[in-house]
Amino acid sequence: MDLGLAGKKVIMNGGAHGLGLAALRHFAREGADVAFLSRDPAKVEAAVKEIDGCGPGKVHGTAIDITGDPEGYKAWLNGCLEALGGCD
User: Fold this and answer.
1) Stretch 17-34: mean pLDDT, rounded?
2) Which of 2, 15, 33, 60 is 20 to 30 A off residue 80, Cα-Cα?
């Protein structure tokens, strides 16, 4: 299915497993650049490797716990915007 995501930039809260990972794999297959976070560094590393093998786009994964940390979330989001060159 072509959702017209080639060249788009996607940022997702979560994504190292389950539905988030499935969605990121699909976005990457379509040619989107993706960024995501998760609390578990090992899961982030595994997800980055898996997503990176799905398509030609950039993959930016960060291990961070943003629970109750709005400034940490803002810093993460700004890092994603910089890594991907924006967000669609």
Assistant:
1) 96
2) 2
